[in-house]
Design goal:
Distance between the termini: 34 Å
Helix content: 40-55%
Number of helices: 5
Radius of gyration: 30 Å
């Protein structure tokens, strides 16, 4: 445990890098191509059909890992800020959510800080990619996969048929017609790094519950002496509990 002045100096250095990292995480949410993938193959239905190579695009980002990155990015700075704001204080207030203490003995400055941070986190949660409700998805580790899909791909085949038989005076009359002939059957499956909308809503509701508890405790919270206390990780653990199972 260092002095308050040392902690303040360290915090100033941390904030700039942490804000840059957090901005990068927000920007990544806007790149939809990172969160989706697919796998597609072709089965020849006629021998004369040319070979087609399978197609695949991997999911490059998933909600589970990105939430962990967000947490890992902000927790050290917020814990240090809590330590500083708690300096030279005498007492604190417990944060109770649904009758359960989420973290203990927070001061008013700490609560003010956390209210702002978790309001931002609530916004971040609302922007998380969600699964297309029109599809049936199955959890596959940290991502989801859709049902297998097949599709027949056809090619046009031209044929000639005799419409009028030849006679001694006239040649036969021939007509051209075309028809679709099956050439490939494609097999595909969609993947997503998002989460169900219901789960995203639950995460937001849990964050709102924490914000309500922080605001209720704000008027009563008092500060304690400067002591390192890793409390912010506990709050993230509470909010993210549904995806940590």
């Amino acid at each position: 445990m260092g002095t308050l002045a040392q902690a303040v100096a360290v915090l100033k250095g941390k904030r700039t890098n942490i804000d840059k990292n957090r901005t990068a995480l927000y920007h990544q949410l806007q790149i939809s191509a990172l969160w989706t993938g697919f796998r597609k193959s072709y089965d020849k239905l006629i021998d004369s059909a040319p070979e087609l190579q399978p197609e695949e695009k991997n999911v490059q980002a998933n909600v589970i890992d990105e939430l962990q990155k967000f947490k890992d990015n902000v927790v050290p700075m917020l814990d240090l800020a809590v330590e500083i704001d708690d300096a030279n204080q005498d007492t604190g207030e417990d944060i109770i959510v649904n009758g359960k203490p989420v973290c203990l003995q927070l001061s008013v400055p700490s609560i003010n800080l956390l209210v702002k941070q978790f309001e931002d986190f609530h916004t971040y949660l609302g922007k998380l990619p969600s699964l297309d409700t029109a599809k049936d998805w199955t959890a596959a580790g940290k991502i989801y996969e859709g049902p297998a899909q097949t599709k027949i791909h056809t090619t046009k085949v031209t044929e000639y048929i005799t419409t009028v038989a030849p006679t001694k005076e006239h040649p036969a009359q021939v007509a051209q017609q075309s028809r679709d002939v099956p050439q490939y059957r494609s097999n595909s499956r969609d993947f997503s790094g998002g989460i169900p909308i219901e789960l995203r809503d639950e995460l937001q509701q849990r964050c709102i519950a924490v914000l309500d508890a922080l605001k209720m405790a704000r008027a009563q919270a008092n500060t304690t002496k400067t002591t390192p206390r890793p409390v912010v990780g506990q709050i993230f653990d509470y909010i993210l509990a549904p995806i940590a199972k």
